[in-house]
Prior knowledge:
Elements lengths: L4 H5 L9 H15 L4 E6 L8 E2 L8 E2 L3 E3 L2 E7 L3 H6 L3 E6 L4 E4 L7 E7 L6 E6 L5 E6 L7 H4 L12 H9 L5 H6 L9 H11 L12 H20 L40 E5 L2 E5 L17 H8 L9
Parallel strand pairs: 2-10
Antiparallel strand pairs: 1-8, 3-5, 4-5, 5-6, 6-10, 7-9, 8-9, 11-12
Amino acid sequence: MARSSAGRCTRGRSAIPELPEVETVRRELAPWLTGRTVLAVERVDAPEGPKTAGLERAVGQRIEAVTRRGKFLLLPLRPPTPALASSAVGDELVVHLGMTGVLSPRPPAAHLRLVLRLDGGDPDTLYVQDARRFGRVLVVPRGDYRALPTLAAMGPEPLGDAFTVAAFAAALARSAQPVKAFLLSQRPVAGVGNIYADEALWRARVHPASPARALSRPKVRALHAAIREVLAAAVELQGTTLYDYRTVNGEVGAYLEKLDAYGHDGDPCPRCGTPLVRSVVGQRGTHHCPRCQRRARVRSAAASGGRAARGRRETSGPGGQR
Ligand SMILES: [Zn+2]
């Protein structure tokens, strides 16, 4: 039976962009914006508030780099005079695209919120479009994320060296939340949102509602590997475009066709053929295979013989510790 990715995926809006989409945007912005000075900030439809704060502080400052943490773009700024630069930590422009944020050198047809005028040659204007206004654009002292608690508490980058199986296992062991909800919190690892959580959990054969601390070591290892594989492959294809996400150059991401689980409820599991089901975990639409992804249970202290039993329930995955 044919799997209908595009049609299925339009059900249930997801909070993309996630890490692969933001990384794609970062890669396109970096060569353009690095070294440019912000000449002016125009608030078209973005009054000062929690979502657009302190922007005027960017005026006169130079963008030193375009970096990323999880789903946040971080642009460290440098003041114009050396005296100021040496005495202060400096500021940082923080951008979260929310669900519908688009950064572009071309003016959008609608929902324009902010305009940043830059020095240097064309294109010399950054347009910030955001239809649903879930995005945020702030200027904060560098590294001061008190206004951004998710960023402040964010776990390691999934494709970086700090994201080890041991660190991931330790983080999961501290949470009784459903593993998917815990992933979405960004605390065990940065950048995993609704789509790639479903994909990684399917690939690792982990039930999304399993308590995080109930995962066996083989399952932790499988999930760790799956998160890295799924995100790396999605970055390679410039992410997944379901709705508003576009690259800076206006292109769409091609990972949509690669989705195994997300948006495929009712379609046969690519591994076993069982129809995938949709449920709600942590208030988010969730897709899993009821046959491949069995729910893990926390062993009670009394049931000390439970390890073998749990090992039988969770049959798949690489065995042994390394
Ligand atoms: Zn299956």
